[in-house]
Amino acid sequence: MLAFDLTQEQSFSLRKHVEKVLGKVGEGDVTVACWEPGQVSPNHLHPGATEIYFCFQGGGTMRTPTSTVAVKPGAFVVHPRGELHEYINGPERTLLFRVRYGDNMSTRTKEWPTNPEFQAKPEDSAWFADHPHG
User: Fold this and answer.
1) Do residues 94 and 78 touch, judged by C-beta distance below 8 A?
2) Which of 7, 46, 90, 94 allows an S-S link to 35, with CB 3.0 to 4.6 Å?
3) CATH code: domain of residue 82
4) Distance (Å, rounded) from C-alpha 69 to C-alpha 31?
């Protein structure tokens, strides 16, 4: 059994959101993700893993190429393997609980328009060239 107190595990940074893996279970992991107001994730996907976010406090918007949903306390969002997505935090600190499971936890990042310093890794650029729709 794993047990955590998310309020004790939270950690915030003004530079970028913080994702802290709390534990690994079987073919997955559990994470606390902490967001300052206005922070935005890169537009990314996980080819070999399903990703589930549960909003503990705060909230924002989760966006895929075909859908946009509000994320608020008590809401959760499920991204199937290979679904391109990004999270845009709202006006207050946000604490999300994330569960990922699958045969590969790797991330492929397509772009990060809100981060002018971002440059895609060559292997990610090549992957998206071979998989233009994710």
Assistant:
1) no
2) 94
3) 2.60.120.10
4) 21
